[in-house]
C-alpha cells in the first residue's frame, strides 16, 4: 500500500515522515530523490542545461539558487523543469518500491496533488500548520525573507484545496500531538490492510 504524504512548505512533512520511520515504515522522499538524480543522472544534467543554459550546471553540481531564480516567477519554466525531474523520480520510486517489504510505505512529495501523484497512491495524508507558524519555521530553517517564502507558497495549492483530496489530515502544531496522530494513523493503516 502506497500512502502519499504531502503538505505546504513549512508544514512539517519531514517531521511527520520521520515519525513514520520511527515506527519502522519505509519512507521515500521525492524531493531528496530529485536532488540525488540531478547529481547523478547525465540525462537530467543535459536536459536542465538545455532548458536554463550552462549556468544551471557550472560544474558537476546544479546551481540550485540559479535554477530556483529561473522558475519561481515563471510557471512555464517550472513546469518544464518538473517534466524533466518527475518522470525520473517516478522510475526511481518504482525501483525503490520493488525492494520494500512492509505493510505500507510512505511516499512524501511537496506537490503530490499538484502533480497528480496522488493518483498513484492508495491513501493520502495532508500535513497542515497555521500560516504564521509555517513562515516562522521557514525563516528559522532557511533564513529566508518573508516575501520569498510567500512567493514559494503561492506556487503551491492551498491547504483548503488539498484537504478536499486528502484521506487524512495531521495538524502539526505540537510535536507530541503530531506524534500521537501519526501513531493513531499507523494503526488505522495497518488495520485497513487486514480488511
From TrEMBL:
Belongs to the CoaE family. Keywords: ATP-binding, Coenzyme A biosynthesis, Cytoplasm, Kinase, Nucleotide-binding, Transferase. ATP binds at residues 10-15. It is an enzyme of class 2 (transferase). CDD domains: DPCK. Its EC number is 2.7.1.24. GO terms for molecular function: ATP binding; dephospho-CoA kinase activity. This is Dephospho-CoA kinase. It comes from the Bacteria. Pathway: Cofactor biosynthesis; coenzyme A biosynthesis; CoA from (R)-pantothenate: step 5/5. Its main location: cytoplasm. It catalyses: 3'-dephospho-CoA + ATP = ADP + CoA + H(+). It is found in: Cytoplasm. One of its GO terms (cellular component) is cytoplasm. GO terms for biological process: coenzyme A biosynthetic process. HAMAP family: Dephospho_CoA_kinase. Catalyzes the phosphorylation of the 3'-hydroxyl group of dephosphocoenzyme A to form coenzyme A. SUPFAM superfamilies: P-loop containing nucleoside triphosphate hydrolases (SSF52540).
Amino acid at each position: 500500500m502506497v500512502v502519499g504524504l504531502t503538505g505546504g512548505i513549512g508544514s512539517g512533512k519531514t517531521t511527520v515522515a520521520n515519525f513514520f520511520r520511527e515506527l519502522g515504515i519505509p519512507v521515500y522522499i521525492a524531493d531528496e530523490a530529485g536532488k540525488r538524480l540531478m547529481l547523478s543522472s547525465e540525462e537530467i544534467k543535459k536536459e536542465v542545461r538545455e532548458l536554463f543554459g550552462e549556468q544551471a550546471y557550472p560544474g558537476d553540481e546544479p546551481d540550485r539558487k540559479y535554477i530556483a531564480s529561473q522558475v519561481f516567477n515563471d510557471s512555464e519554466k517550472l513546469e518544464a523543469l518538473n517534466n524533466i525531474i518527475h518522470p525520473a523520480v517516478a522510475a526511481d520510486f518504482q525501483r525503490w518500491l520493488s525492494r520494500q517489504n512492509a505493510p505500507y510505505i510512505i511516499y512524501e512529495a511537496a506537490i503530490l496533488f499538484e502533480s497528480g501523484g496522488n493518483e498513484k497512491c492508495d491513501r493520502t495524508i495532508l500535513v497542515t500548520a497555521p500560516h504564521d507558524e509555517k513562515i516562522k519555521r521557514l525563516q528559522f530553517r532557511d533564513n529566508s525573507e518573508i516575501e520569498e517564502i510567500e512567493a514559494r507558497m503561492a506556487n503551491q495549492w492551498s491547504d483548503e484545496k488539498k484537504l478536499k483530496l486528502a484521506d487524512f489530515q495531521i495538524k502539526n502544531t505540537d510535536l507530541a500531538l503530531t506524534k500521537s496522530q501519526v501513531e493513531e494513523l499507523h494503526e488505522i493503516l495497518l488495520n485497513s490492510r487486514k480488511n
